[in-house]
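Collaborator request log, item 7. Partner lab (contact: R.S.) asked for a structural prediction of Zinc-type alcohol dehydrogenase-like protein to inform their binding assays.
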Amino acid sequence: MQTMKAVGLYRYLPITDEESLIDLEVEMPVPTGRDILVEVKAVSVNPVDTKVRAPKDKVESQPKILGWDVAGVVHAVGPDCTLFAPGDKVYYAGSITRQGGNSAYHLVDERIVGRMPSSLSFAQAAALPLTSITAWEGMFDRLRISREPADNQGRSILIVGAAGGVGSIATQLAKLAGLTVIGTASREKSSQWVKDHGADYVINHYEPFVPQLKAIGFEHVDYVFCLNATEAHWGQMAEAVRPQGMVCSIVEAKSDLNLNLLKEKSGTYVWEYMFTRAMFQTDDMIEQHHLLNELAKLIDSGQIQTTVTDVLSPINAENLRRAHAMIESGSTIGKIVLEHF
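Returned to partner:
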């Protein structure tokens, strides 16, 4: 039996506890069906990692491995694979219903994997999949925004929480699509980050939206993309969106939302959850493969920039605990990446 290094947990504990994430030696998996086995070169940490790891009474009999952003090299492929071969450089987010990528080798269905941008390092590429899929699906699949700039002339989008990982990509994609982009941020450093990634305007999400929008010449916006505290901003978003406009959120609400606020506007509310296609094995799950390949072209042509801000090495429990703590601080900008086992 071949074994490999990994970082995981048995108990769900505060990140200050050294057993919240521990170094492990586990069995190396073997690819079957359409799975590929990837040698992991770099991983990124997202809020979903901290949410899954958050303290709870459950105890695992087998180690739970987190991590849903990977860049690496295909080591082996299952018998039904057609998209990749050993040696290919790949990047992907994986599936929330399977073991994550914080391991030296990782199994993933090839239909949700893309070819890594040739212009990026493994660390730079690992920062992209989860946030990019979320931003892309949220805007182009859920809000049904056209990718053609000519179709979006005069249209605007408000991105709530624009300095984070998803917001940094969403801002760039929205600008490429020809939208006027208004991002929210609350600090000078995060506001500058939002502007640097292409936002036309920045407003403060701790202050009422509509007066700030009116001050920069907007009575309302066509789209709202919420990436932070859905219930806290719900009333402001419903007021800011235009009649027959659309609101999309990626953050589960901690309390019920009053959808009646959108009734008179005939407004539309939609969710985006980038794990849906993999979780339910939807007929179109290969769209994530196509999406990541298209994103790689945009990156290699210089139209989209990676959003990595911190790189830690090596990939071990100590550094992953450090990254989780940074995420839980709520003040991170861009993405945190770890490289090298």
